[in-house]
Amino acid sequence: MENRPLNPQVYEINTRVWLNTLSAALERRLTLGAVPQDIWEHYKELGMDAVWLMGVWLPSAAGVQIARNHPDLLRAYGQALPDFVPDDVIGSPYSVAGYELNPALGGPDDLARVRENLRRAGLKLILDFVPNHTAQDHPWVREFPRYYVWDDADSMFGHADSFEADTAAGKKVRIAFGRDPYFAPWTDTAQMCAICSETREAVSRDLVRIVDWCDGLRCDMAMLTLNSVFGRTWKAWIDRRGVVLPPTEYWAEVMTAVKASHPEFVFMAEAYWGTEPELLNLGFDYVYDKEGYDQLRCLDMSALKRDLLAEGDRKTHKIRFLENHDEDRMASAFRGGSFFSAAVIHATLPGLRLFHHGQLEGRVIKLPVQLGREPEEPLDEEIESFYDRLLRETAAPLFKDADGRVLDVEPSFEGDASYASLIAVAYLNESEAAVAAVNHSDRTASCYARFPAGFWDGWEDIVFHDVMSEEKTVYARKREALEKEGLYIKLGSFGYHLLRAARKEGRP
């Protein structure tokens, strides 16, 4: 994203569901290019820099049929949408039959229209890319089975791990289902051979087309294509067929042409298992921070702060999230006061801050991605009002463009261990400063937050305004005291401050 902030904010939309809901509300069938401009303007007003339209590509007819008959998925549909009918099941957006717009979302020109409308609102467009697998009815399966993990029809693959495919050469082969090695296979997909040169060349050609339609790609399960991961996952097949691991990595090859022709283009990696640094080294701009999400969810603040302080320059390349289409709804996972304390931490950490469709309104029902209709839920007015205030504050250039620093925190008195649950993040530019302080625990906690040497150079009296408090509390501090002792913080259960100060006294 050209001229992107240091700490951008991205809004993920479950596109097929969202457009269906919006069409029903406006009582006319919308295409993506016809979405009213004021909707995009609203996301900009909330401080978003880009919109991730999740699930726009050509759906798989075979995948829809599989999704409508999968026992585990049927149970999940019933839990999320008790009155679902077969037509509500529209297939997984990650079982892609081709990189062209789903006709249900518009015609060939709608991607260009929606991108232009987003640009008019000051927003960038992020789309999906699925490197590990395709749909079973993707044209490559028939025309180029060698792009996949395949074998002869009487191969070692069991029927539970693969499907039979007819090729253009009139031969039957078995192709493995796509998979994550720690879970059951995705039975609506075909596993690509990430170490095969022909596969990489074909993927590179697809990427060169896609990048002209958007400003960035969120790459699904990006670590599965690493030589080390693919080699472990498919070792038996590699050994059987005598395939040799290449000297170069998948991402180093497929991103080369894009980076050369579109240096501002953004690659975001869904990544786990400690592979994040390797993916950053291979050219990704951002990688998931799943560990940070898990630490916040289980209130493990010591581990969170330890990892944040160790990130160094990687901190602005992490994708921070509290909810996405894979995780539980935030309002369900973070109950009570922990919702609000986690939200303040997330919205003020350095890095790319990802927000999900429904998160800002407090939706609690996690919708399987195979469904095209969402249940009716009452909006949580408290959460909606809270997020409206929080995001309008963090949309300020101070939080977007300044270098956010996670502060060291120390006990406020000898023997007090409560400080461990407190986190403080500070931002500073030429005219103003901010400190977000949060107690992400169910007990009162206190600490001294220590600023880096020279942080307050050029300041004298510092007047903090707590912009998220109902009382608009003001705290006056001397620079010498902040430099010598730090900032004293005491917060009740799941309490938070969002303090802002200008070089001249008064609210910034």
Shape: globular
What is the tally of helical segments?
19
Helix content: 25-40%
Classify the beta-strand content into a percent band.
15-25%
Number of E-state strands: 24
Overall pLDDT:
95
Describe the overall structure:
This protein has 508 residues and is α/β, with parallel strands linked by helices. It is built from 19 helices and 24 strands. It has an 8-stranded parallel β-barrel. The protein has a 6-stranded antiparallel beta sheet with strand order 16-18-19-24-21-22. Strand 8 and strand 9 (172-176) form a beta hairpin. Helix 13 runs antiparallel to helix 14 and helix 16 (338-348) runs parallel beside helix 17. The protein starts with 8 loop residues before the first strand and ends in a 6-residue tail after the last strand.
Secondary-structure map:
Layout: E1 9-14, H1 15-26, H2 37-45, E2 50-54, E3 57-59, H3 61-67, H4 71-80, E4 96-101, H5 110-120, E5 124-129, E6 133-135, H6 139-143, E7 150-152, E8 162-166, E9 172-176, E10 189-191, H7 197-210, E11 216-219, H8 227-233, H9 235-241, H10 250-254, H11 256-261, E12 266-269, H12 276-281, E13 286-288, H13 290-297, H14 301-310, E14 318-321, H15 330-333, H16 338-348, E15 352-356, H17 381-394, H18 397-401, E16 405-406, E17 408-410, E18 422-428, E19 432-439, E20 445-450, E21 461-466, E22 474-478, H19 479-484, E23 487-491, E24 496-502
Parallel strand pairs: 1-2, 1-15, 2-5, 5-11, 11-12, 12-13, 13-14, 14-15
Antiparallel strand pairs: 3-4, 6-10, 7-9, 8-9, 16-18, 17-20, 18-19, 19-24, 20-23, 21-22, 21-24
Helix pairs in contact: 13-14, 16-17
